[in-house]
Inverse folding.
């Protein structure tokens, strides 16, 4: 008999307890994230839409809502919390379970001050204030399931790497204090002959970035990307012979919006750690209803 | 006694009849347009939202709806007709009167074939087919009333000229057959000290282009406009000392989308003649409900 790994036993016991308590695969994924038993949420609870996060002091909530409504491809709104209430998301379909806490149910968070990243943490319990409002924004993990199901699995999933992300020249159209930001795009290599299928498969996912914003090497240049092997975030991707880059809007964009606003935003701002998403109760069956996002009322 | 102008008498009689029949100022404006008694609709029926038009063969309707949902600042959807039915708009709040005909109730139309403008006409009665679908898209006339009410009347209204419009480098994010287009922007000169008020006044008009997309001479360069005195459409505007250009997304953009699609779109496409809009039954009171546009269902 080898030595017993107490942590592993505890984790397994906790996992079993969570599996028993959870009311849905999405709820189970959130509970696993809450207890740091799940970190990168890629592939978690297939069929459920995942969300990026931005949390702002309430005085900026109206401007940020407008920014999302004006830029639904990079910032599609899936839900918004009431000011100061981290347990309730509107519309209610986004998080159906009463057992929810925005401050803990993402695996990992980032903290910003004056537009600058100041640190990561596994929960927001001691930095959250009753004045904070959380915005849940659609995530490309949602359409990657569909690509895989269509035999078009994204390269980074096959190689176990982080998707390449680039700063593009596509403007994020301004709203109030939020101006001057550019879209972040994610990149996946595909064969030119698969391009129309790739576009068709991701098109219905309007509320989770939808179809590509640019493709091919000319498309890359057009959106200001000179070298597709040198991403600004994530990891370089392997191109097989003849493959071309295909770009989608990316949910890291809201963090660039906060960086661009800089000192104009007073107070702490929180975001998710890239790759560490919230699994929502929206499903791919809700896509037609969600269209390009909710109004954020 | 001078000679009697028969046409004027007839027109006056028709105007009086229309005023009696009309169920609202918007309906009256539409009837005047139908009978070519009103051409440029700027200033008509204040408080009612005006709309740009694009009419497509039904096979492209899904892609164009997606394009509007992805680009709500330049292409905010106010309503869509059922295929082949020029009398009914969804949602019903857009046109409440049963006495409506999309083929006559704009003062003037443009016809496109293979992405090329092929002619103007005062109605679409003999070119419309049961396969055509009409899209109504928000128009900046709607927020100009609000600017005027705030003491910020647009210069082109004061000088009686046509607003300056420019081709910008802001991409219209692609959807299906529609790719490669850039946003058209309209330009109004303002003093730098009025800029924040100008932004605030137009911000709520999310479904009719909303707040500016760029401002100042640096802003002009940023969106690819080198000379603000040489518009691509409309007329040059007078700048008073110290004034800077302020740019809004413009509802002529959908026509650029059709031009970019070129031969990919088969069949006739119709649009409004710039400045010759439809007065809808939506009012400024509906703006919050409309947000960045309707879903087009």
């Amino acid at each position: 008999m080898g030595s017993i790994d107490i942590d592993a036993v505890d984790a397994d016991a906790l996992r079993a307890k969570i599996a028993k308590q959870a009311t849905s695969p999405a709820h189970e994924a959130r509970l696993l994230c809450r207890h740091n038993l799940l970190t990168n949420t890629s592939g978690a609870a297939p069929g459920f839409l995942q969300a990026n996060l931005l949390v702002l002091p309430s005085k900026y909530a109206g401007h940020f809502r407008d920014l999302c409504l004006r830029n639904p491809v990079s910032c599609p709104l899936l839900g918004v919390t009431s000011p100061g209430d981290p347990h309730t998301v509107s519309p209610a379909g986004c998080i159906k379970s009463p057992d929810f806490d925005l401050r803990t149910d993402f695996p990992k968070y980032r903290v910003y001050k004056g537009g600058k990243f100041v640190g990561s943490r596994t929960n927001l319990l001691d930095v959250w204030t009753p004045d904070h409002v959380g915005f849940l924004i659609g995530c490309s993990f949602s359409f990657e399931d569909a690509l895989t199901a269509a035999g078009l699995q994204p390269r980074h999933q096959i190689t176990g790497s982080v998707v390449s992300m680039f700063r593009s020249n596509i403007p994020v159209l301004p709203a109030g204090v939020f101006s001057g930001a550019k879209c972040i795009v994610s990149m996946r290599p595909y064969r030119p002959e698969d391009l129309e299928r790739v576009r068709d498969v991701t098109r219905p996912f309007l509320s989770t970035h939808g179809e590509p914003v640019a493709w091919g090497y000319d498309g890359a240049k057009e959106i200001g990307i000179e070298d597709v092997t040198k991403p600004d975030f994530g990891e370089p991707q392997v191109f097989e012979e003849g493959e071309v880059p295909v770009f989608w809007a990316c949910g890291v964009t809201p963090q660039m919006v906060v960086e661009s606003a800089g000192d104009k935003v007073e107070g702490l701002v929180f975001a998710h750690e890239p790759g560490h998403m919230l699994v929502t109760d929206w499903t791919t069956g809700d896509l037609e209803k969600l269209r390009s996002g909710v109004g954020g009322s």
